[in-house]
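Re: [ENG-882] Designed sequences occasionally contain unexpected residues at chain ends

Forwarding the minimal case from QA. C-alpha coordinates:
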Protein backbone atom coordinates (compact mmCIF):
# COMPACT_ATOMS: atom_id res chain seq x y z
CA UNK A 1 0.00 0.00 0.00
CA UNK A 2 2.81 2.36 0.93
CA UNK A 3 4.53 1.55 -2.37
CA UNK A 4 1.33 2.35 -4.31
CA UNK A 5 0.96 5.69 -2.52
CA UNK A 6 4.59 6.51 -3.24
CA UNK A 7 4.15 5.73 -6.94
CA UNK A 8 0.96 7.82 -7.13
CA UNK A 9 2.71 10.72 -5.43
CA UNK A 10 5.66 10.42 -7.82
CA UNK A 11 3.30 10.44 -10.82
CA UNK A 12 1.53 13.55 -9.53
CA UNK A 13 4.82 15.34 -8.92
CA UNK A 14 6.03 14.31 -12.39
CA UNK A 15 2.85 15.62 -14.04
CA UNK A 16 3.17 18.88 -12.14
CA UNK A 17 6.78 19.24 -13.21
CA UNK A 18 5.78 18.65 -16.84
CA UNK A 19 3.23 21.45 -16.65
CA UNK A 20 5.73 23.81 -15.07
CA UNK A 21 8.50 23.15 -17.60
CA UNK A 22 6.32 22.76 -20.70
CA UNK A 23 7.03 23.69 -23.42
CA UNK A 24 10.61 24.42 -22.37
CA UNK A 25 13.00 25.49 -25.12
CA UNK A 26 11.27 23.40 -27.79
CA UNK A 27 8.75 25.12 -30.09
CA UNK A 28 5.14 23.98 -30.37
CA UNK A 29 4.28 23.19 -33.98
CA UNK A 30 0.73 24.03 -35.00
CA UNK A 31 0.16 21.74 -37.97
CA UNK A 32 -2.20 23.17 -40.60
CA UNK A 33 -3.36 20.44 -43.00
CA UNK A 34 -3.67 22.91 -45.89
CA UNK A 35 -1.40 25.13 -47.95
CA UNK A 36 0.23 28.31 -46.67
CA UNK A 37 -1.69 31.50 -47.43
CA UNK A 38 -5.13 29.90 -47.22
CA UNK A 39 -7.88 30.85 -44.75
CA UNK A 40 -7.09 28.13 -42.19
CA UNK A 41 -3.39 28.98 -42.37
CA UNK A 42 -4.25 32.58 -41.58
CA UNK A 43 -6.28 31.57 -38.51
CA UNK A 44 -3.35 29.43 -37.34
CA UNK A 45 -0.78 32.21 -37.69
CA UNK A 46 -2.96 34.67 -35.79
CA UNK A 47 -3.59 32.07 -33.08
CA UNK A 48 0.11 31.18 -32.81
CA UNK A 49 0.86 34.81 -32.06
CA UNK A 50 -1.96 35.06 -29.51
CA UNK A 51 -1.01 31.83 -27.70
CA UNK A 52 2.66 32.79 -27.60
CA UNK A 53 1.68 35.70 -25.38
CA UNK A 54 -0.04 33.41 -22.90
CA UNK A 55 2.89 31.09 -22.09
CA UNK A 56 6.03 33.08 -21.20
CA UNK A 57 9.08 31.97 -23.17
CA UNK A 58 7.06 29.78 -25.53
CA UNK A 59 7.34 29.68 -29.30
CA UNK A 60 4.38 28.56 -31.42
CA UNK A 61 5.19 27.97 -35.08
CA UNK A 62 2.94 27.03 -37.99
CA UNK A 63 3.77 23.97 -40.08
CA UNK A 64 1.83 23.31 -43.30
CA UNK A 65 1.24 19.64 -44.15
CA UNK A 66 -1.24 19.87 -47.01
CA UNK A 67 -2.86 17.18 -49.11
CA UNK A 68 -5.74 14.71 -49.36
CA UNK A 69 -8.37 17.06 -47.96
CA UNK A 70 -6.47 17.70 -44.76
CA UNK A 71 -5.99 14.02 -43.91
CA UNK A 72 -2.20 14.06 -44.38
CA UNK A 73 -1.72 16.74 -41.74
CA UNK A 74 -4.26 15.15 -39.40
CA UNK A 75 -2.55 11.76 -39.71
CA UNK A 76 0.81 13.37 -39.01
CA UNK A 77 -0.45 14.77 -35.72
CA UNK A 78 -2.32 11.60 -34.74
CA UNK A 79 0.96 9.68 -35.04
CA UNK A 80 3.18 12.35 -33.46
CA UNK A 81 4.78 12.02 -30.04
CA UNK A 82 2.15 12.92 -27.40
CA UNK A 83 4.36 15.49 -25.71
CA UNK A 84 2.46 18.69 -26.50
CA UNK A 85 4.97 19.89 -29.09
CA UNK A 86 2.81 18.95 -32.09
CA UNK A 87 -0.82 20.05 -32.30
CA UNK A 88 -3.35 20.21 -35.11
CA UNK A 89 -5.47 23.17 -36.17
CA UNK A 90 -8.25 21.90 -38.41
CA UNK A 91 -11.61 23.14 -39.63
CA UNK A 92 -14.96 21.44 -40.31
CA UNK A 93 -13.06 18.91 -42.42
CA UNK A 94 -12.21 17.18 -39.14
CA UNK A 95 -15.87 16.12 -39.02
CA UNK A 96 -16.31 15.66 -42.77
CA UNK A 97 -13.40 13.41 -43.76
CA UNK A 98 -14.76 10.28 -42.01
CA UNK A 99 -17.79 10.51 -44.32
CA UNK A 100 -15.78 11.42 -47.44
CA UNK A 101 -12.90 8.93 -47.18
CA UNK A 102 -13.38 5.20 -46.85
CA UNK A 103 -9.86 4.82 -45.47
CA UNK A 104 -8.23 7.18 -42.98
CA UNK A 105 -4.97 6.93 -41.05
CA UNK A 106 -6.73 7.92 -37.83
CA UNK A 107 -10.05 7.78 -35.98
CA UNK A 108 -11.34 11.29 -35.38
CA UNK A 109 -12.95 10.74 -31.98
CA UNK A 110 -10.37 8.26 -30.67
CA UNK A 111 -6.90 9.37 -31.80
CA UNK A 112 -6.84 12.97 -30.56
CA UNK A 113 -7.07 14.98 -27.37
CA UNK A 114 -9.61 17.74 -28.05
CA UNK A 115 -8.25 21.09 -26.85
CA UNK A 116 -11.10 23.49 -27.68
CA UNK A 117 -12.81 25.37 -30.48
CA UNK A 118 -11.35 28.60 -31.87
CA UNK A 119 -13.81 30.40 -34.12
CA UNK A 120 -16.76 30.21 -36.48
CA UNK A 121 -16.23 31.46 -40.01
CA UNK A 122 -19.23 32.16 -42.28
CA UNK A 123 -19.05 31.19 -45.93
CA UNK A 124 -19.81 33.33 -48.96
CA UNK A 125 -21.26 32.17 -52.25
CA UNK A 126 -19.25 33.95 -54.94
CA UNK A 127 -19.11 33.92 -58.73
CA UNK A 128 -16.74 34.92 -61.50
CA UNK A 129 -16.86 38.63 -62.38
CA UNK A 130 -18.18 37.91 -65.88
CA UNK A 131 -21.49 36.46 -64.66
CA UNK A 132 -24.49 38.55 -65.79
CA UNK A 133 -26.35 38.05 -62.50
CA UNK A 134 -25.93 40.65 -59.76
CA UNK A 135 -28.30 39.35 -57.07
CA UNK A 136 -28.79 35.89 -55.59
CA UNK A 137 -32.26 35.56 -57.10
CA UNK A 138 -30.90 36.50 -60.53
CA UNK A 139 -28.11 33.98 -60.01
CA UNK A 140 -30.56 31.16 -59.22
CA UNK A 141 -32.51 32.00 -62.38
CA UNK A 142 -29.26 32.02 -64.37
CA UNK A 143 -28.39 28.55 -63.03
CA UNK A 144 -31.77 27.17 -64.09
CA UNK A 145 -31.50 28.77 -67.52
CA UNK A 146 -28.07 27.19 -67.97
CA UNK A 147 -28.72 23.82 -66.33
CA UNK A 148 -25.80 21.46 -66.79
CA UNK A 149 -23.53 24.12 -68.33
CA UNK A 150 -22.01 25.69 -65.20
CA UNK A 151 -19.25 24.48 -62.91
CA UNK A 152 -18.35 24.95 -59.27
CA UNK A 153 -14.82 25.02 -57.89
CA UNK A 154 -13.52 23.75 -54.58
CA UNK A 155 -10.13 23.47 -52.91
CA UNK A 156 -10.09 19.67 -52.74
CA UNK A 157 -12.14 16.81 -51.31
CA UNK A 158 -12.94 17.55 -47.69
CA UNK A 159 -12.05 21.25 -47.95
CA UNK A 160 -14.38 23.90 -46.54
CA UNK A 161 -15.30 25.04 -50.06
CA UNK A 162 -16.13 21.46 -51.05
CA UNK A 163 -18.40 20.90 -48.04
CA UNK A 164 -20.17 24.22 -48.54
CA UNK A 165 -20.70 23.62 -52.25
CA UNK A 166 -21.99 20.13 -51.56
CA UNK A 167 -24.56 21.33 -49.03
CA UNK A 168 -25.61 24.29 -51.17
CA UNK A 169 -26.17 22.16 -54.28
CA UNK A 170 -28.12 19.57 -52.29
CA UNK A 171 -30.49 22.40 -51.26
CA UNK A 172 -30.64 24.07 -54.67
CA UNK A 173 -33.10 21.58 -56.18
CA UNK A 174 -32.00 22.39 -59.70
CA UNK A 175 -32.57 19.84 -62.47
CA UNK A 176 -28.94 19.39 -63.40
CA UNK A 177 -26.15 19.70 -60.88
CA UNK A 178 -23.13 21.81 -61.74
CA UNK A 179 -19.89 20.15 -62.77
CA UNK A 180 -17.49 20.03 -59.83
CA UNK A 181 -13.93 21.20 -60.49
CA UNK A 182 -11.48 20.30 -57.69
CA UNK A 183 -8.24 22.22 -57.19
CA UNK A 184 -5.16 21.58 -55.08
CA UNK A 185 -5.91 24.41 -52.66
CA UNK A 186 -7.89 27.57 -52.06
CA UNK A 187 -5.44 29.87 -53.87
CA UNK A 188 -5.57 28.13 -57.29
CA UNK A 189 -9.36 27.75 -57.02
CA UNK A 190 -9.76 31.47 -56.34
CA UNK A 191 -7.36 32.35 -59.16
CA UNK A 192 -9.42 30.27 -61.59
CA UNK A 193 -12.63 31.96 -60.42
CA UNK A 194 -11.19 35.45 -60.78
CA UNK A 195 -9.90 34.53 -64.24
CA UNK A 196 -13.29 33.20 -65.32
CA UNK A 197 -12.18 29.58 -65.82
CA UNK A 198 -14.82 28.44 -63.31
CA UNK A 199 -18.24 29.91 -62.57
CA UNK A 200 -18.87 29.73 -58.84
CA UNK A 201 -17.33 28.81 -55.50
CA UNK A 202 -18.39 28.83 -51.85
CA UNK A 203 -15.59 29.75 -49.48
CA UNK A 204 -14.74 31.21 -46.08
CA UNK A 205 -15.14 34.94 -45.48
CA UNK A 206 -11.50 34.95 -44.34
CA UNK A 207 -10.63 34.24 -47.97
CA UNK A 208 -13.39 36.01 -49.88
CA UNK A 209 -13.79 39.39 -48.15
CA UNK A 210 -10.82 41.13 -49.79
CA UNK A 211 -11.72 39.68 -53.21
CA UNK A 212 -15.30 40.95 -52.92
CA UNK A 213 -14.17 44.35 -51.68
CA UNK A 214 -11.72 44.61 -54.57
CA UNK A 215 -14.40 43.76 -57.13
CA UNK A 216 -12.48 40.70 -58.36
CA UNK A 217 -15.43 38.36 -57.74
CA UNK A 218 -19.19 38.77 -57.41
CA UNK A 219 -20.84 37.93 -54.09
CA UNK A 220 -24.40 36.58 -53.94
CA UNK A 221 -25.12 35.36 -50.40
CA UNK A 222 -23.72 34.31 -47.04
CA UNK A 223 -24.30 30.91 -45.43
CA UNK A 224 -25.31 32.04 -41.95
CA UNK A 225 -28.95 31.91 -40.82
CA UNK A 226 -29.11 35.70 -40.85
CA UNK A 227 -27.23 38.32 -42.90
CA UNK A 228 -23.93 39.58 -41.47
CA UNK A 229 -25.45 42.98 -40.72
CA UNK A 230 -22.44 44.39 -38.85
CA UNK A 231 -19.75 43.40 -41.35
CA UNK A 232 -18.53 46.39 -43.40
CA UNK A 233 -18.37 44.41 -46.68
CA UNK A 234 -20.72 41.44 -46.32
CA UNK A 235 -23.67 43.26 -44.72
CA UNK A 236 -25.06 43.97 -48.18
CA UNK A 237 -25.66 40.32 -49.05
CA UNK A 238 -28.62 38.11 -48.00
CA UNK A 239 -28.35 34.77 -46.22
CA UNK A 240 -29.22 31.60 -48.12
CA UNK A 241 -31.86 30.85 -45.50
CA UNK A 242 -33.38 34.27 -46.15
CA UNK A 243 -33.44 33.35 -49.85
CA UNK A 244 -35.56 30.28 -49.17
CA UNK A 245 -33.11 27.51 -48.25
CA UNK A 246 -34.82 26.17 -45.14
CA UNK A 247 -32.56 25.68 -42.09
CA UNK A 248 -29.42 26.47 -44.07
CA UNK A 249 -26.91 27.66 -41.50
CA UNK A 250 -23.28 26.81 -42.15
CA UNK A 251 -20.13 28.14 -40.55
CA UNK A 252 -16.66 26.71 -40.95
CA UNK A 253 -15.37 26.28 -37.43
CA UNK A 254 -11.77 25.70 -36.38
CA UNK A 255 -10.53 23.63 -33.47
CA UNK A 256 -7.26 22.62 -31.83
CA UNK A 257 -6.14 19.01 -31.19
CA UNK A 258 -3.21 17.10 -29.68
CA UNK A 259 -2.18 13.46 -30.19
CA UNK A 260 -4.02 10.94 -28.02
CA UNK A 261 -2.14 10.29 -24.80
CA UNK A 262 -0.77 13.80 -24.35
CA UNK A 263 -0.50 14.25 -20.56
CA UNK A 264 -3.45 15.96 -18.89
CA UNK A 265 -1.17 18.59 -17.35
CA UNK A 266 0.00 19.61 -20.84
CA UNK A 267 -3.45 19.59 -22.44
CA UNK A 268 -4.66 21.79 -19.57
CA UNK A 269 -1.79 24.23 -20.18
CA UNK A 270 -2.70 24.37 -23.88
CA UNK A 271 -6.41 24.77 -23.19
CA UNK A 272 -5.75 27.53 -20.64
CA UNK A 273 -3.54 29.35 -23.17
CA UNK A 274 -6.18 28.89 -25.88
CA UNK A 275 -8.97 30.31 -23.70
CA UNK A 276 -6.83 33.34 -22.87
CA UNK A 277 -5.96 33.80 -26.57
CA UNK A 278 -9.68 33.80 -27.41
CA UNK A 279 -10.04 36.86 -25.16
CA UNK A 280 -7.07 38.68 -26.69
CA UNK A 281 -8.50 41.94 -28.16
CA UNK A 282 -6.04 41.87 -31.06
CA UNK A 283 -6.95 38.27 -31.98
CA UNK A 284 -10.65 39.09 -31.76
CA UNK A 285 -10.20 42.16 -33.96
CA UNK A 286 -8.30 40.20 -36.63
CA UNK A 287 -11.08 37.62 -36.75
CA UNK A 288 -13.88 40.17 -36.88
CA UNK A 289 -12.23 42.05 -39.74
CA UNK A 290 -12.62 38.90 -41.84
CA UNK A 291 -16.14 38.07 -40.75
CA UNK A 292 -15.06 35.35 -38.30
CA UNK A 293 -16.39 35.15 -34.75
CA UNK A 294 -14.15 33.96 -31.92
CA UNK A 295 -15.76 31.26 -29.79
CA UNK A 296 -17.17 32.60 -26.52
CA UNK A 297 -19.33 29.63 -25.49
CA UNK A 298 -18.60 26.32 -23.76
CA UNK A 299 -17.14 24.78 -26.94
CA UNK A 300 -13.77 26.17 -25.82
CA UNK A 301 -13.82 23.34 -23.24
CA UNK A 302 -12.31 20.04 -24.49
CA UNK A 303 -15.32 17.86 -23.62
CA UNK A 304 -17.79 20.23 -25.31
CA UNK A 305 -15.49 20.56 -28.32
CA UNK A 306 -15.50 16.78 -28.77
CA UNK A 307 -19.26 16.60 -28.30
CA UNK A 308 -19.78 19.28 -30.94
CA UNK A 309 -17.52 17.54 -33.49
CA UNK A 310 -19.34 14.23 -32.94
CA UNK A 311 -22.66 15.94 -33.73
CA UNK A 312 -21.20 17.62 -36.83
CA UNK A 313 -19.97 14.24 -38.08
CA UNK A 314 -23.53 12.90 -38.03
CA UNK A 315 -24.93 15.96 -39.84
CA UNK A 316 -22.29 15.97 -42.58
CA UNK A 317 -22.46 12.21 -43.15
CA UNK A 318 -26.17 12.53 -43.93
CA UNK A 319 -25.43 15.14 -46.62
CA UNK A 320 -22.54 13.14 -48.10
CA UNK A 321 -24.57 9.93 -48.15
CA UNK A 322 -27.32 11.77 -50.04
CA UNK A 323 -24.77 13.05 -52.58
CA UNK A 324 -22.97 9.70 -52.82
CA UNK A 325 -19.51 11.28 -53.19
CA UNK A 326 -16.57 9.51 -51.59
CA UNK A 327 -12.86 8.93 -52.02
CA UNK A 328 -10.90 5.75 -51.47
Amino acid sequence: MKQWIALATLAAVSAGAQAQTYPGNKPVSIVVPFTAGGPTDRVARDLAEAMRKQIPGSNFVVENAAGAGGTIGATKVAKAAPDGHTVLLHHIGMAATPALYRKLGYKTLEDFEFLGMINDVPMTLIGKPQLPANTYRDFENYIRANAGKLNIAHAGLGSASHICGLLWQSNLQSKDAMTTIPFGGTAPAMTALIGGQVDVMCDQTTNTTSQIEGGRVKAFAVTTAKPLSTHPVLKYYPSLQEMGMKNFDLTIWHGLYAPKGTPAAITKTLNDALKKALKDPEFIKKNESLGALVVTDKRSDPAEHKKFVAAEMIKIKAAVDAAGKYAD
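QA comment: On inspection the terminal residues look reasonable. The radius of gyration is 21 Å. Proposing we downgrade this to a documentation issue.
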